[in-house]
Amino acid sequence: MLSNIIANQTIHEAYGGVVPELASRVHQQNIIPAVQQAIINAKVSKNDIDAVAFTRGPGLLGSLLVGVSFAKAFALAQNVPLIDINHMQAHILAHFIGIDKPQFPFLCLTVSGGHTQIVLVKDYFDMEIVGQTQDDAAGEALDKTSKVLGLPYPGGPLIDKYARLGNPDAFKFPEPNIPDFDFSFSGLKTSIMYFIRDNQAKNPDFVAQNMADICASVEKRVVTILLNKLEKAAKAYDVKTIALAGGVSANTGLRLGIQQLADKHNWKSFIPAFEYCTDNAAMIAIAGHYKFLKGEFIGQQVAPLARMPF
Ligand code: KG4
Ligand code: ZN
Fold it and tell me: Which residues are involved in binding Fe cation (predicted)?
């Protein structure tokens, strides 16, 4: 990995969530400087680049269009092939950047702001979703909770920070009863909202006085919901290697939890390096690398997909 540039967008903080229209405009402004910086950091010449891999989906269409259009133009100008990548597969393939790579098959719990999935990974591009959320994603539940707590967007990292200082058993939130390996976070999200609203009505300083305990208790519930399902799926599929991927895998409680789960059963667990958990270019590059080895390229007529199956 020669360079991994991330152009973050802070503009959304003022709105408490990502504004799609603004996201694509800022992405459009950032993309060329980010690629230029990547080439400088990597100490390569543009002519050393053998192919361009880009995110085809899933995601916000406006931002995907910017990336696809840039990748096409770059590939055309440099006369190199184009490689289309599925964002969720790339989160999983981030495990192959380092030296310690998981062996197939493994089960990957992929948790981000938009997705919550348990994926049976049989090969680099042979993946099967065995469970997923029926409504909200885990990251969304954390982001919404943090919003009600008055914390800035995205709230996941701040919930993590406060949770380290609090008592995870201070407050009890419900564990939804969902069949098989699927998830639901909308009921939990609503119960957290009501819990905070009702307590604030009784005591206007409730959130301020209990921030760490609320965050620790919410995080504990989200983590136990996720890991209970992962445990159940690993047993059902008789898979002894489990992994985490996606932005929420940056969460300290979840990272500790999956290690404890693996230790309990003598399974192996894999967690991506911190910088490869939240959205990054390196994960798209590693996925592109494996497609490149197979000679799997895409034509210039390719269109992005807001929803993209594996
Ligand atoms: O994968 P990602 O960067 O973007 C999407 O593809 O959605 O995931 C973003 C999600 C957000 O919900 C954010 O709050 C959450 O990951 N997140 C965290 C942490 N860091 C990021 N959630 C909990 N603890 C963290 N440390
Ligand atoms: Zn992501």
Answer: 87, 91, 279
Sheet containing strand 126-132, strands side by side: 126-132, 116-123, 106-111, 241-245, 268-270
Taking CA atoms only, the protein residue closest to ligand 1 atom 14 is 156
How is the chain split into domains, by residue range? 10-91+279-294, 100-271
Please indicate if the annotation marks 110 as binding a ligand.
yes
Please give the mean pLDDT across all residues of the chain.
96
CB 135 within 8 A of CB 189: no
What ipTM was estimated for this complex?
0.97
Establish whether residue 136 lines the binding site of ligand 1, counting it when its CB lies within 6 angstroms of any ligand atom: no
112: Cβ below 6 Å to ligand 1?
yes
Q: What is the pLDDT of residues 107-166, one digit of tens each?
A: 999 999 899 999 999 999 999 999 999 999 999 999 999 999 999 888 999 999 999 999
247-256 mean pLDDT:
97
Structural element, H or E, at residue 80: none
Distance 115 CA to ligand 2 centre (A): 8
Q: Report the alpha-carbon distance of residue 197 to residue 116 in Å, rounded.
A: 27
Whether 279 lines ligand 1, by a CB cut-off of 6 Å, is yes
Query: Do the two domains 10-91+279-294 and 100-271 of this chain adopt the same fold?
Result: yes
- Report residues near ion ligand 2: CB below 5 Å: 112, 279
Q: What is the pLDDT of residues 18-32, one digit of tens each?
A: 999 999 999 999 999
Closest CA to 216 of 251, 167, 255: 167
Assigned fold of 100-271:
Nucleotidyltransferase; domain 5 (3.30.420)
Ligand 1 atom nearest residue 252's Cα: 26
User: Whole-model pTM above 0.90?
Assistant: yes
CATH number (1.10.3720.10, 3.40.50.10540, 1.10.357.10, 3.30.420.40) of 10-91+279-294 reads 3.30.420.40
Instruction: Read off the tokens for 274.
Output: 């911190």
